[in-house]
Specification:
This protein is an alpha/beta fold and about 425 residues long. It contains 16 helices and 18 strands. The chain has two domains: about 170 residues, LarA, C-terminal domain (2-enoyl-CoA Hydratase, Chain A, domain 1, Alpha-Beta Complex), CATH 3.90.226; about 220 residues, 3-Layer(aba) Sandwich (Rossmann fold), CATH 3.40.50.11440. It is globular, with a radius of gyration of 21 Å.
C-alpha cells in the first residue's frame, strides 16, 4: 500500500480483489521523449517556433507545489535549455509554484521541487492567493484575479502532471492556472457548495463538470501559450508526455491516463481498504479525503471503508483544522449550514463537503481511519471512526482487518493499493 515515503504491507485473505490499473512502463529515454514532444507538440507549433514568433522579453513557467509528485527536475532543465537556445536568458524567466490556497513552500521544498542548479539560476517564487499586491484582475464578470507575474509575462508555460482528480475529473492542464494561480474568491467559486453538489464534479469526468469548466474559462481568459504535462507510472517515472495546445494536449493525456488507471467493478464490496496516496499527497488529512472519495464506486450502504494515511502534517491548514473540530463529527449540521449560504464559501470547506459524499453513503461508523500522524484527541472529532490503540499504523490496520474477517467470514473484500491514483467505475 502507498503510505508515506516507505509504503506499508498488509496480509489479506487470498480471496481479496485487488483493484489497480495497468502497470505502465516508464519511457525508456525520458529526455529524448521530452525533447521530441517539445519539437512536435499536440495541435501547436513547436516551443522553439512559438518563442521565435513571439520574441518574448519575459517568460513565466508554472509548476505544481510539493503536494504533487510531478518530476519537475526531469523536464524543467530541457524546457530551460530550449528557452536559452532561443535567446531567452535565465534572468528573463520566472518559475511560479502554483500553491493555490495551500501553505507556502519551504526553502527545502523549493530545492526539492526544482533542484539546486535551477534554484541558483532562475528566480523561483510561490503564488500568494491572499496577497493582493501580487495579483492582477483579468475579468470582472465574475471577478477573477491571478498571479501578476504570470499574467504580465510575455510568454506563459503551464506544467503539471495528469492524474485522476476526485472533483475536477483529472489534474493537469487548466488546473495549473486555476486554482493554482488565482485569488481566494476564484478558488472559492471553483470549490463552492453548488459546484461540488453537482454529481458531474467527479473523478474522470470532464464533460459538463463545473470544476473543469470554471478552471478552463480562467486559463483561457489569461491565456496559456504552451502546456507541458506528463503522466507518471507507479514508480513515479514519466510514462507519457503531452504538450502543446492547452485543451487538446490535456485531453490527449487524460484519455491515456483514464485507460491506464481505470478499473471496472461489477458490484460493491463489504470491506474496501485504501490509502491517501503516499508521499507527498498523504501528508495531510485534507488531501487524504481524495482517497476516500475515489473509493466511492466500490461502496454501498452496508460497506466499510478503511483508509490508511501518514498525515505527517496532521489535518492541514489551521482554518481547515478549526472547521473540522468545530463540527465535532456532526457532518449533517455542516452540510446544512453551507447549503443555507451557498454563496459564502469558507476556506477549505470544500474538502469536508467532499468527505460527506462518503459519509452519506456509508455513515461515520463505517469510515475507518488509521494514521500515526494525527493526535488521538483530534482523530476523534474529524468525522471518521479512528482505529486507535497500541501499535503503529501497520499493526493497527492488520488487527482491524483480521478482526473484521474473523467476524465476517464470507465478506467480499477489495484493496486499492494505489489509492486516489486508481479510477473505479461500475460495469454497465
Amino acid at each position: 500500500m502507498l503510505y508515506g515515503k516507505s509504503g506499508l504491507e498488509l496480509k489479506l485473505p487470498s480471496s481479496v480483489t485487488v483493484l489497480e490499473g495497468q502497470d505502465i512502463p516508464a519511457l525508456p529515454e525520458s529526455a529524448k521523449a521530452i525533447l521530441q514532444a517539445l519539437a512536435h507538440p499536440i495541435a501547436s507549433p513547436s516551443l522553439t517556433d512559438l518563442i521565435a514568433a513571439k520574441k518574448p522579453e519575459t517568460v513565466a513557467i508554472t509548476i505544481s507545489d510539493i503536494t504533487r509528485p510531478t518530476p519537475n527536475k526531469v523536464f524543467l532543465p530541457l524546457i530551460l535549455q530550449i528557452l536559452n537556445e532561443c535567446g531567452i536568458s535565465d534572468s528573463q524567466i520566472v518559475i511560479i509554484i502554483g500553491t493555490g490556497m495551500h501553505r507556502p513552500s519551504t526553502t527545502e521544498e523549493h530545492e526539492s521541487l526544482v533542484g539546486r542548479d535551477i534554484l541558483n539560476r532562475i528566480e523561483v517564487i510561490d503564488h500568494k492567493a491572499n496577497d493582493n499586491s501580487t495579483l492582477v484582475k483579468i475579468d470582472n464578470n465574475p471577478p477573477i484575479s491571478i498571479c501578476r507575474r504570470f499574467a504580465e509575462a510575455d510568454f506563459r508555460i503551464v506544467t503539471g502532471c495528469i492524474e485522476p482528480h476526485f472533483m475536477a475529473g483529472f489534474s493537469g492542464g487548466r488546473k495549473g492556472v486555476c486554482p493554482a494561480l488565482v485569488d481566494l474568491q476564484t478558488i472559492q467559486r471553483f470549490h463552492g457548495y453548488e459546484t461540488l453538489s453537482n454529481p458531474l464534479a467527479d473523478n474522470g469526468v470532464l464533460t459538463s463538470n463545473p470544476c473543469h469548466d470554471i478552471a478552463l474559462k480562467v486559463a483561457k481568459t489569461v491565456g496559456v501559450d504552451f502546456l507541458f504535462n506528463v503522466a507518471i507510472n507507479k514508480e513515479r517515472k514519466i510514462a507519457g508526455v503531452y504538450c502543446g495546445n492547452l485543451e487538446k494536449a490535456h485531453w490527449a493525456g487524460c484519455q491515456k491516463v483514464a485507460e491506464w488507471t481505470s478499473v471496472q467493478i461489477e458490484k460493491p464490496f463489504d470491506l474496501v481498504i485504501t490509502n491517501g496516496g503516499g508521499y507527498p499527497l498523504d501528508q495531510t488529512f485534507y488531501q487524504t479525503v481524495k482517497g476516500m472519495c475515489c473509493a466511492l464506486p466500490a461502496l454501498a450502504k452496508h460497506s466499510t471503508l478503511l483508509i490508511i494515511s501518514h498525515c505527517g502534517e496532521q489535518l492541514g491548514s489551521k482554518t481547515y483544522t478549526n472547521l473540522m473540530l468545530k463540527y465535532n463529527n456532526n457532518w449533517q449540521n455542516f452540510l446544512r449550514d453551507i447549503a443555507a449560504k451557498p454563496n459564502e464559501t469558507q476556506l477549505d470547506q470544500w474538502e469536508f463537503q467532499m468527505q460527506t459524499r462518503v459519509l452519506k453513503r456509508i455513515g461515520l461508523d463505517k469510515l475507518w481511519l488509521v494514521s500515526d500522524g494525527i493526535p488521538n484527541d483530534i482523530q476523534r472529532y474529524i468525522s471518521v471512526t479512528p482505529i486507535l490503540g497500541p501499535g503503529d499504523t501497520q499493526e493497527r490496520t492488520q488487527q482491524a482487518i483480521d478482526k473484521y474477517t474473523e467476524n465476517n467470514s464470507n465478506a467480499e473484500i477489495a484493496v486499492i493499493p494505489e489509492g486516489p491514483y486508481t479510477m473505479l467505475s461500475k460495469k454497465l
